Amino acid sequence: MPSSALDHPMDNVIDIFTRKPLSELSNNKLIRIAPELDGLEMLYSNAENPEKLFSVKVLAWGLKLNGEVVGLVPWLDQLIACDEINDPLNGQWQGYYDQGVDELFFAAPLHKVVELETAADYYEYQCDSGQEVIQEVPDGIGTHAVLSADGFQSITLKEVISWRLLHDGTVQAMLINEKTMHSTPVLPGDDCLYAADKNGDFCYFFQHHIANKLKSQDPDALAAISVLKES
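-> structure tokens emitted (231 positions)
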């Protein structure tokens, strides 16, 4: 057998869902996350408004196994690296933005890179399962999960309290189970929290300003929900 096959046993194995080599997926695994605390944003464009740029708050920065540091945002139904948003209809990544100094940039801030690399070197976890929790950080941008059991005829909005990084690189949005909540405030790590994707009614993540418009019965927001009903 050629030595290259021994050195890279997963290069020729393709994941049936992503169509990417398993070796590439392994290198993209998140091993550490750090909350974004200074209000930095992701800029994106979409096909319906080609002359405009839109922004969303960066939730956190993530260090991948390959050493790359990327911004992370709740997008549709998952937490995704900003530079991986590449859907012409829903959005295409255009860079990061610091509103305080009106600066556009394309790589993670150096202080976040140093923070993540230093923390990864300091904390070395020995885990028996890929489902073990490595980190849990609070949601600082007001993310809401949208739940619907009837095709968006009715919806429930639930605040995301925190995000858990598992040993296998998965990041879970944590919601409150009111039936098991015994005290407030509910903090990251509380026993009453459960992963949004474990709820069969979970549909999407909404930004806080969209969620607040829905709560106040804003006509434009309700019209957007009507589109979801039709689709």
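Residues 15-124 form one domain.
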